[in-house]
Design a protein that fits this description.
The protein has 560 residues and is of the alpha/beta class. It contains 15 helices and 24 strands. The chain folds into 2 domains: 339 residues, TIM Barrel; 145 residues, Trefoil (Acidic Fibroblast Growth Factor, subunit A) (Trefoil), CATH 2.80.10.50. Helices cover 27% and strands 19% of the residues. The strands form 7 sheets. The protein has an 8-stranded parallel barrel. Bound molecules: 2-acetamido-2-deoxy-beta-D-glucopyranose (4 copies). It comes from Eucalyptus grandis (Flooded gum).
Length: 560
C-alpha cells in the first residue's frame, strides 16, 4: 500500500478504455525462446494454448474429416480460443514413400473403412484423392489460413494408437525405432515445412519409454535429432520429451541441459494426466494428493521453468465429468497451470476416431468436440480450459505492475468486485481487479483502502476498510496450499468459498484431515501473479476517489 499513486479524476477515466482495448495480436513468426518464455520476433510472449489433433493412427489422416469440412474444423479451433495445434504424425509418413503416396481413399479402403470414405466424400471431397502427405500439408495449410500455429509432433513410428510400454515404438533401438530412420524422417519433415510460417515447432518424439530407456542414449539421440531439425528448418522450436512417458525430465541440468550448436529454440515438454498417478486422486484426500503430486512435478519437470519453456503438451480429462479421478485432478491442474502460466496442449480436440485400437468410430471422451465434431462435448467444462488460454505474465505483456488475481480452479473464474454495493462474485479473470497479498496476509484491492474480510460462517465475505483485525488476515493452508483461511471476529475459523450463485462466502474449511471422500475444490483459490492489463481496477480506483473515502486517516490501517 505504501507508494500507491493517486491520479487526477480525468486520467483514470481514460486509462481503462485504452488498456482494455489492447488485446493480443497475432504472433509474428518465427518464434524463439527467452529464458522460460516463448516469444515472437518482437520479443513479446506467445503463450501456446494448443489442442492435440491426431493424425498418427492407421489411416494416417487427421481425424474428423469424415465428420466436418477441414476449413470448418480449423475455424472452430481458432474460435475456441486455441492459437495452436499439436498435430501428431507417424514417422513412416515421412520415411515410407509408398505409404505417404497412398491416397486417402486407398488408405481407408485398405482398412475396410467404407463409412469414413463416404463421410470424406460428403465433407471433404477435395481430399479424397490427395495423397496422405498432401492431406497432412492441407491440414497445416488450413490451420494457417485461420492463424493457428502448428507443432508437428512425431508421435510414434508405425501408424497406430500410442503408447504401450513394449509396443516397439518406445525408445531408440526398439523394433520400430531405428535412430537413423528417425533422424531421416525428422529431417524430411522439417525440410518439407521449411518456410511454412504457421509451423512454429517440432516435438521430436512423443513419450519415450520402455525397457530400453536410459539417460545416456537420450542425450546421444535427442542432441542428434535436435541438430538435424535445426539444420533443416532453423525457424522451428525444437521440443524435447522426457523419459517415462514424458513424465521425467529430472535428469536435465538447468544450466546446460544439452550440448547444442544453437540457442533460443529449445523447449521441453511434459505430460500430466490424472492417471499418471494411477487412481491416487479418487482414492486419496484431494488436498494431500494435489500437494504430493505437485511436489513430485516440481522435482521431475517444473524446476526447468526457472530457465526454460515447458510445454505441458498433453493433459486432459473425461469431459463427461463422470470420472472422479479426473475431476479432482483437473482442479489441481488448473490451479497450477494458472500459477505457473505454462504453455499447454489439451488432449484432445478429437471427438471420435476413424479407427482406434480396432474399434471403428471410437468416441473420444477426452475430446473437446462431440462424436460428430459439431459441438463442444461439454461447454461448461470447456470454459475451464478457456480460462487458461490467455497469458497472465511474460515479456511484452507488462501493461501493469505485478499484482495478484484470485483464481478459482474449479470454475476457471476469478474473484471480482465490480461494485461497492454487492458482494464479491466469481467472474472472468480477464475482468479481475488487481489484488495485493501483503506480508501481513491482508488481501487488498490495489490502490484502494479495501480488503477482504470474513464476516460469518455461511455469509458473504465483504470488502472492509479497517484491515488490521483477525478477520482481514488470510492464511494459505492445507497440503494443496489452495485454501484461504481466516477467523471471523467472533473467533470461528473459516475458509473462503463459493456458493451456488458464485458469490464469495466463507464456510468451514473442508478436507483438511485425511478424509478421502470430501471434495474441497469449491474452497480452492490460487493467488496468481499477473501483469496482464486490467480493465476494472482503474474504474474502481476512480470510484474510490469520487467517493473520496478518507484520504489520509485510513492509510495507516492499510499499510501497518
Ligand atoms: C510402407 O508402407 C506400405 C503401405 O502402407 C507398407 O505396405 C509397407 O510395409 C511399408 N514399408 C515399411 C518398410 O514399413
Ligand atoms: C559439444 O558438442 C561439440 C560439437 O558439437 C563438441 O565439440 C563438444 O565436445 C561437446 N561437448 C560436450 C561437453 O559434450
Ligand atoms: C460437464 O462436466 C461437468 C463436470 O465438470 C458435469 O457435471 C456435467 O454433467 C458435464 N456435462 C455434460 C453435458 O457432459
Ligand atoms: C485463526 O485462529 C487460530 C486459533 O487462534 C490461529 O491459529 C490462526 O492463525 C488464525 N488465523 C489467522 C489467519 O489469523
Amino acid at each position: 500500500m505504501v507508494g500507491r499513486r493517486r491520479r487526477s479524476i480525468i486520467l483514470p477515466l481514460l486509462l481503462p478504455l485504452l488498456i482494455c482495448l489492447s488485446s493480443l495480436s497475432a504472433a509474428a513468426s518465427p518464434l524463439s525462446t527467452s529464458s522460460r518464455w516463448i516469444v515472437d520476433g518482437s520479443g513479446r510472449r506467445v503463450k501456446l494454448a494448443c489442442a492435440n489433433w491426431v493424425s498418427h493412427l492407421e489411416p494416417v489422416v487427421a481425424e474428423g474429416l469424415s465428420k466436418q469440412p477441414l476449413g470448418a474444423i480449423s475455424a472452430r479451433i481458432a474460435s475456441l480460443g486455441f492459437n495452436c495445434v499439436r498435430l501428431t504424425w507417424p514417422l513412416f509418413l515421412a520415411t515410407n514413400d509408398s505409404l505417404a503416396s497412398l491416397t486417402v481413399r486407398q488408405s481407408f479402403q485398405g482398412l475396410g473403412l467404407a463409412d469414413a470414405i463416404s463421410g470424406i466424400q460428403a465433407n471433404n471431397p477435395d481430399i479424397l484423392d490427395l495423397s496422405l502427405i498432401e492431406t497432412f500439408q492441407a491440414v497445416v495449410s488450413s490451420l494457417g489460413d485461420n492463424d493457428v500455429m502448428v507443432i508437428l509432433d512425431n508421435h510414434l513410428t508405425k501408424p497406430g494408437w500410442c503408447c504401450g510400454y513394449s509396443d516397439g515404438n518406445g525408445f531408440f533401438g526398439d523394433q520400430y525405432f531405428d535412430p537413423d530412420l528417425w533422424i531421416h524422417g525428422l529431417t524430411r519433415m522439417a525440410t518439407l515445412f521449411r518456410g511454412v510460417g504457421n509451423v512454429v515447432g517440432m516435438s521430436l518424439r512423443n513419450e519415450l519409454r520402455g525397457a530400453r530407456q536410459n539417460v545416456k542414449d537420450w542425450y546421444k539421440y535427442m542432441q542428434r535429432g535436435a541438430e538435424a531439425v535445426h539444420a533443416s528448418n532453423p525457424d522451428v522450436l525444437v521440443i524435447l520429451s522426457g523419459l517415462s512417458y514424458d513424465k521425467d525430465l529430472s535428469f536435465l541440468n538447468l544450466d546446460r541441459p544439452l550440448n547444442l550448436s544453437f540457442s533460443g529454440k529449445l523447449v521441453f515438454e511434459l505430460h500430466w494426466y490424472a492417471f499418471s498417478d494411477g487412481s491416487a486422486w479418487a482414492s486419496g484426500n484431494p488436498n494431500r494428493v494435489c500437494g504430493q503430486v505437485v511436489g513430485n512435478l516440481n522435482r521431475l519437470s517444473f524446476f526447468l521453468l526457472q530457465r526454460w519453456p515447458l510445454l505441458v503438451s498433453e493433459f486432459g480429462v473425461d469431459q463427461r465429468g463422470t470420472n472422479a479421478n479426473d475431476n479432482r485432478y483437473l482442479s489441481c491442474f488448473a490451479g497450477v497451470a494458472a500459477d505457473l502460466d505454462f504453455d499447454w496442449a489439451l488432449w484432445t480436440l478429437v471427438g471420435s476416431y476413424y479407427l482406434r485400437e480396432g474399434v471403428v468410430g471410437m468416441i473420444e471422451y477426452y475430446g473437446a468436440l462431440d462424436e460428430n465434431w459439431a459441438e463442444l462435448r461439454n461447454s461448461s467444462l470447456f470454459q475451464r480450459f478457456r480460462a487458461l488460454q490467455p497469458p497472465l505474465k511474460g515479456p511484452g505483456l507488462s501493461e501493469t505492475t505485478p499484482h495478484k488475481v484470485i483464481f478459482h480452479p474449479a470454475t476457471g473464474l476469478c474473484v471480482l468486485r465490480k461494485s461497492l454495493l454487492e458482494p464479491m462474485k466469481l467472474g472472468p479473470c480477464t475482468e479481475s481487479e488487481a489484488w495485493n497479498y501483503t506480508p501481513q496476509k491482508v488481501l487488498s484491492l490495489k490502490a484502494t483502502y479495501f480488503c477482504i474480510q470474513a464476516v460469518e460462517v455461511g455469509k458473504p465475505a465483504k470488502l472492509g476498510i479497517i484491515c488490521t483485525g483477525s478477520n482481514s488476515k488470510w492464511d494459505i493452508i492445507s497440503e494443496s496450499k489452495m485454501h484461504l483461511s481466516s477467523n471471523t471476529s467472533n473467533g470461528a475459523s473459516v475458509c473462503l468459498d463459493v456458493d451456488s450463485d458464485n458469490t464469495i462466502v466463507t464456510s468451514s474449511c473442508k478436507c483438511l484431515s485425511r478424509d478421502s471422500k470430501c471434495d474441497p475444490s469449491s474452497q480452492w483459490f490460487k493467488l496468481v501473479e499477473s501483469t496482464r492489463s486490467l480493465c476494472a481496477t482503474r474504474t474502481f480506483d476512480l470510484l474510490n476517489s469520487i467517493l473520496d473515502l478518507p484520504r489520509k486517516g485510513l492509510v495507516g490501517f492499510l499499510s501497518s
